[in-house]
Amino acid sequence: MHRREAVPEEPCQCPDCQRFYREHDRLIRENASLRQQQELNWAALQSFRTLAGRVLEELQKQYGDGEPPAPEAPRAAGTPAIEAGKTASTAAPAPESPEAEAIHQAMADLENINAHLFSIEVLMERIFDVRVPEEVEQKFREVAGELAPDPLNADRLRLNRLLHQTPDLPDRG
Ligand SMILES: [Zn+2]
Question: Is 132 within a domain?
Fold first, then answer.
């Protein structure tokens, strides 16, 4: 029985939530100062922007800007347009196909994401300008240690074993 009875409302323990708690705590544990949190979140934001922006560029190159693309496929003389379209194996999907529609929707979504990421960056810049005295950074580390203790810490593992020992364990005696 690992449930802590003192907590009135147990947080959700579904696999997704558990993964989130673990990741949440790991990010606190491994970035336990204000400075580290600033660097972590700045790097996360920038890497997200870089990757999503580059993918959008690639899609725009490949599929056009959402405008109906100009016919680019070279057409052999005398070949009807429809046949030329069918034989061009490397051509992008036809503009009206469901595949192209899905791609263009994804591009619009990515543009929105990038616009939001840019807005977040503008707000975050102010957060990241802040510097605090070492005493405050030390307070961050203390609180981080309380919020997200290392689950593999030897003392903690030993303590957990003691706490979860019950008198009627079969291996006693
Ligand atoms: Zn859940």
Answer: yes
More confident residue, 80 or 65: 65
| Alpha carbon of 24 to ligand 1 centroid (Å) | 14
Q: What is the pLDDT of residue 65?
A: 74
Residue 125 in any domain: the answer is yes
Number of domains in the chain: 1
Predicted model pTM: 0.63
- In this structure, is residue 76 part of a structural domain? no
Q: Is 97 left (phi over 0), alpha (psi -120 to 50) or beta?
A: beta
Ligand 1 ion: nearby residues, β-carbon < 5 Å: 12, 14, 17
Residue 109 has pLDDT above 70, yes or no: yes
Q: Give the pair of three-digit tokens for residue 40.
A: 């972590």
Q: Which helix (H) or strand (E) holds 57?
A: helix 34-63
Taking residues 157-161, report their average pLDDT.
67
Distance 7 CA to ligand 1 centre (A): 17
Determine, yes or no, domain membership for 88.
no
State both tokens at 158: 């030993």
**What's the first-to-final CA gap in the chain, in angstroms?**
21
Half-sphere exposure of 102 (CA within 13 A, CB side): 5
Q: By residue range, what is the domain housing residue 112?
A: 22-64+97-155
